[in-house]
Write a structure and sequence with these properties.
With about 350 residues, the protein is of the alpha/beta class. The chain has helices spanning about 1-20, 45-50, 70-85, 100-105, 120-130, 135, 155, 170-185, 215-220, 285-295, 320-325, 330-350; strands at about 40, 55, 60-65, 85-90, 110-115, 140-145, 190, 195, 205-210, 220-240, 240-260, 270-275, 280, 300, 305, 315.
Length: about 350
Amino acid sequence: MTKKKLTTAAALAAEINQTLDLEEGVLLGSDPYFHIERIPTGSLVLDRITGGGFALGRHYELYGSENSGKSYTVYRTMTLSQGRGKLCAIVDPEHAFDSERFSFLGGFPEELLAFHPQNAEDAIAVMMLLAKHAQEEELEVISIDSVSSLVPTEEMSKDPREHDQPASQARMMSRALRRITAVNRKTLFLWINQERQNVAVKFGNPNTTSGGRALRYYATGRVEFRRGAKILNKRNVVRAGKLVNAEVATGRWTQVKVEKDKSTRPNREGSFVFDFDLKTIDETWDIISLGLEDGLIEREGNSYLYTDMDGTTHKYPERKFRENLRKNPSLLEELRTAIEYETNRQSTGE
């Protein structure tokens, strides 16, 4: 019965494709095209809560607090894509792209396509062309920083003293996503968005995102970034003309939550540390957090304990434990591999 249905389905698909001469014909659900490929985010915690990384061929919206790691995540994802031998592009209406920062994170600015659109319609046209030719050019990631800065032509053409047409940006985003999605195949779109306060909301969360509701509907995933507590350490600083030893912020926790995800389980959350000195996400904190979650690392009092594959026990207070991970690349790699294995196991359901 099953074999007959498979034969019938394949025959029917072939007949439709031959009759209509479709550019991209009807496929079977088992076709490799429908297999979800993922690209890592640069954070083990983000990889875990997104089911192994961002899914290619989809839209993701990154939104939340300012200075919470959204742009960093986009930059890092693009650098990792370039490391796979792929091309990437950034649409930058904010004019905020920093090539030195991108290089510092491991990227190659000379291989990155960058566009500063004068209006939203130009941005849409470029994104459509990039998505349309992505497969032959191996263009894997297109990022937009940010939705709030995309200005429709009708808004640009008006006198700034006039009142704006209501919802012009929302209509523009709806048109853009319909057209881009229609031509996109395997390109990942990362949309950075900002929050606005909806003054009409009297109860509940008054925050909303720019650009209307179209993006949240088209997006496979929406990831919320929230700034958390600062990490303070003693440093010598000058205050009021005096050199004093005081507590200064050397990092910050960021809480991340997958508000929506159609490719894996939604409402997963985690937290990572952005180290101000390293100027990156501190991987040692990712490893401690997920190591505890997976039962690889134990906490005894104020110390963390891990027994490696050679039977050596590593037991230190938090700071010393993280220093030990940095000084022992093989130990770091052992834990990273075990955590990535568990992430992959959870995402595939094995």
